[in-house]
Amino acid sequence: MAVERVQSAIARARAQRAGLETVYEIDEDLPMAEDEEDFIEPLPPEDWNALPKSGMTARILDRARIVTAGLAEHSSAFDMMRTKVLQRMKTEGWKRIAITSPDKSCGKSMVAMNLAFSLSRQVELRTILVEADLRQPSLAKAMRLSPQGGFAEVLRREVPFPKSLVRVRENLAVLANRDRSPASAELLHSDSVPGVLKEIERAYRPDMMIFDLPPLMLADDTLAFLGNVDCALLVTSAEHTTTAQVEACVREISDRTALVGVVLNKYRSAGAASGY
After folding, report:
1. Which of 72, 174, 186, 242 is 20 to 30 A from 217 (CA-CA)?
2. What is the per-residue pLDDT across 227-240, written as a single tens digit (0 to 9) for each?
3. Is residue 37 part of a domain?
4. DSSP strand E in the chain: where?
């Protein structure tokens, strides 16, 4: 799907709305202010350095298609996306971003991981990547993590979130899922979600929380959760996402939160320059 078609789809879907819509091109083959009534006196922060840490070898990063852990040649597209998203979120005072896609095989989890690792190279930022995809979890396997519990267990308060978070960089922690969870949409729609997210923020003071969500058009999980984030990034595939899917997803996202941008994944430009 060409860039122009994505931009046209966004324009039609968002014609009556004001906001920023940016298309980020990525070749996958390359290696609220709170209401007064909700105010709670902040507690002393937990010790971030006490979180368990998992070493990420070059082999693990390569197999997970994470190219943003260092200054790699192929990280520039993700780094540009990071900068534009971060600038918008800082301007708006946002801290929570969801990443979703119209359907499967668009590369949303790969984008989420690369965005998180790109942010981790800014040492003054603290980032938490939360796998909110309870239907088809993949982050623990991709990054070879062994968490004591996943997001479902944290939401059900079966496992405290300090035992679920794993630091993969000094300033980046991941909350990944070990297994699929039944009744995932009901769990993501439960009353416990806002409280748990606030507890994590109060305890660890993240500058950014990234939520890897299921595809928007395959289940209602993402629709149930979008109201808990400040903005969303839509990952599409140049190889099979249709204009109608983009338009439908933009409308659904915009009804629930702000659309911060659209990623056009698997896009190959024959005339692209190979370096600065």
Report:
1. 174
2. 999 999 999 998 78
3. no
4. 23-26, 96-100, 127-131, 165-169, 172-175, 208-212, 231-237, 258-265
